[in-house]
Write a structure and sequence with these properties.
- The chain has 171 residues and is mainly alpha-helical.
- The protein has a domain of 96 residues.
- Helix content is 46%, strand content 5%.
- The chain has five helices and four strands, in the order H-H-H-H-H-E-E-E-E.
- The strands form two sheets. Strands 1-2 form a two-stranded antiparallel sheet. A two-stranded antiparallel sheet has the order 3-4.
- A hairpin with an 8-residue loop joins strand 3 and strand 4.
- The termini are far apart.
């Protein structure tokens, strides 16, 4: 049975009008385009939304976790002030006070442990004088010139560390 044109229809129909029972090409193309455009814009939205978190991660910022939480709050609450605050926080370099203070505290603990373990902590230790010579890294006095007999002066005993993580040793 062939499709007959309605008597009120014009003789030349546009290409997007389909006959009854045929596939509507315009509807299929429109549906595919809508899905593709939604995926593209959704991807762009998520890239823009995660911009503060990516900036903080790339810069190895200390406040990375705070920026990530602000981004999630902005995503789930739709309060854009959280996103703006996260972006500003990701762009600002906060000074790191914790690392130097922690290093100072651990150094003081090591010094205190070394002083407590030293039985002669209350006595004054002899220090090399500048006229006898300069001291090398182990505390040994290097004389400026040798005496007439050719013998060097005896090294001064001091408690030193060869590296920051080692125990005190007598040099």
């Amino acid at each position: 049975m062939s499709a007959q044109l309605h008597s009120a229809a014009p003789h030349h129909l546009p290409a997007f009008i389909t006959a009854p029972g045929e596939t509507d090409i315009l509807l299929v193309v429109t549906a595919v385009m809508l899905i593709v455009i939604l995926l593209i814009f959704g991807n762009l939205f998520l890239k823009l939304h995660t911009l503060p978190e990516r900036l903080a991660h790339k810069g190895h910022k200390l406040q990375f976790e705070i920026v990530a939480v602000l981004g999630l709050l902005a995503l789930f609450t739709h309060i854009h002030a959280f996103w703006v605050a996260g972006l500003l926080l990701a762009l600002v370099d906060l000074p790191d006070f914790g690392t130097p203070l922690g290093r100072m505290a651990s150094s003081l603990e090591r010094i205190a442990d070394g002083a407590a373990a030293d039985p002669t902590a209350g006595t004054v230790k002899p220090q090399p004088s500048l006229d006898r010579g300069a001291a090398d890294f182990r505390g040994t006095v290097i004389p400026h010139d040798l005496p007439a007999g050719g013998a060097a002066e005896a090294p001064v005993k001091r408690r030193v560390r060869s590296s920051p993580n080692q125990e005190l040793i007598d040099a």
